[in-house]
Amino acid sequence: MPVTTVTSLQSLKQKGEKITMLTCYDATFAHVASGAGVEVLLVGDSLGMVLQGHDSTLPVTVADMAYHVASVSRGNQGALVLADLPFMANASIEQTLLNSATLMRAGAHMVKVEGAAWLADSVRQLTDRGIPVCVHLGLTPQTVNVMGGYKVQGRLEAQARQMRADAIALEQAGAAMILLECVPTELAQEITQAVQVPVIGIGAGSGTDGQVLVLHDMLGLSISGRVARFVRNFMVGQPDIPSAINAYVAAVKDLSFPALEHGFQA
Ligand code: KIV
Questions:
Q1: Number of Cβ within a 10 Å radius of residue 16
Q2: How high is the pLDDT of residue 61?
Q3: What per-residue confidence (pLDDT) applies to 1?
Q4: Eight-class DSSP state of 117
Q5: Among residues 68, 69, 71, 45, which one has the least CA distance to residue 58?
Q6: What is the value of pTM for the model shown?
Q7: 44 lines ligand 1 (CB under 6 A)
């Protein structure tokens, strides 16, 4: 059992203490990040881009995810391990259940699915069977081809209304956590206040219950050289990687990250 659980995350939200999450793909970084106090290690399908060198997350398979979840799990010192269900791994309810079970058996404590209110049935069925679910709303990289690029979501009032309704519907279906990616700061804050479960943001401003960054981004490492507006390079001013991860945890906890310039306006 990890030290961080769905209930300890819930009580951080209730106390108003910010939650820290980082992506993580291997045992050594899992050891360092969980030792630094990162509460949630996200084995993200971003590994398709930062580890495998693809230009999207679409090529990542359940077997890839299970391999990295198992690696992270071996180095983890008490964080909650959250594993992404990769592209099309939730194409049907049966596949969702089987693929989630594979990731839980590999060492995950919760699975993350990208989508919207249409996920409600999967969320209910997974939760009923003992698998907590984090729902990823806003910019969902697995649907990049439908969205026409990696764009901020929820800027139009109708989109914003839909996202608020989706978050509430998914919480009612049993979601244990919500992750908002590239959503205007004000909308992210409204959604955070509208639900009881923890809301974690990336490019969603400072009003969420916690923050997540891709590990390589916050260490200043990039293949493309492009840096998203919501990223801060925590290596700046730090002697080594463990210190940079400590600095990230401290900055999220003391509310100095994200700053105003890391967020988006409607
Ligand atoms: O796959 C991932 O790393 C993610 C984060 C960008 C939140 O989903």
A1: 7
A2: 98
A3: 63
A4: G
A5: 45
A6: 0.98
A7: yes
